[in-house]
Amino acid sequence: MNKLLIKISALVVSLVTISALAQDIKGDAKAGESKNAMCVGCHGIKGYQASFPEVYKVPMISGQSAKYIVSSLNAYKKGERKHPSMRGISETLSDQDMADLAAYYSTSGVVAGAQQLADKPTKEPGEKVQALLAKANCSSCHGSNFSKPIDPSYPKLAGQHADYLLVALKSYKTENNAKVGRGNAIMASMAKQYTNAELKVLAGYLSSLNGELKTVSQSQFR
């Protein structure tokens, strides 16, 4: 228990530091659009699939929170999130680059009324899903509609690809792997409460919800 508390304390300090950085560095969406050449090859193609560590659709990041994008890129850069390609890309980015890219993707493709649509769940969860959501109290951080988290450094989940969500959730359970895994003590403790089959059910439900996330196709890929 003491080890878990130490990990959680370290995580909180890390998030506060990242948040402070994000507040100090103002992102420029126009500059971000000119810096996204390494991003569009995966995140700018609708339905594009990655093959590591398994086949899944790459996440939709247009409409995602800017603070979450910065937090994620920093995690890849520091090796807290293990993914060879994302680690290589993030290591080339300065704090300003990250802020600019985050500003661009957080506003890319956003349309008026998207949040109002996200506020209306596509469907109510059945008893099984309700029980699974309650086990880790998922909505306490990610919001009751999973599109308006309590802190912008947490991700919007509603409408995200189910196969990506499953891979991400399983990665929090992975330990002692040099190439796969996510070092987040809180999410690890939550994810480990579930079997992979239960995580698949959760991922499917979250993917079915109305959300603000999308893939904005780049002209060269249309």
List keywords for this structure.
single chain, 222 residues, Cytochrome Bc1 Complex, Chain D, domain 2, two-stranded antiparallel sheet, 12 helices, globular, disordered N terminus
Count of discrete structural domains: 1
* CA distance, first residue to last residue: 52 Å
Q: What is the CATH class designation?
A: Mainly Alpha
Overall geometric form: globular
Mean pLDDT: 88
Give the helices and strands as they follow along the chain. HHHEEHEHHHHHHEHH
What spatial order of strands do you see in the largest sheet?
A: 1-2
CATH topology: Cytochrome Bc1 Complex, Chain D, domain 2
By CATH, the superfamily comes out as Cytochrome c-like domain
Taking pLDDT < 50 over at least 5 consecutive residues as the criterion, the unreliable ranges are 1-22
Please summarize what this structure is.
This protein has 222 residues and is mainly α. It is built from twelve helices and four strands. The protein is 53% helix and 4% strand.
Walk me through what this model shows.
The chain has one domain: Orthogonal Bundle (Cytochrome Bc1 Complex, Chain D, domain 2). 53% of the residues lie in helices and 4% in strands. Strand 1 and strand 2 form a beta hairpin. The protein is globular, with a radius of gyration of 17 Å.
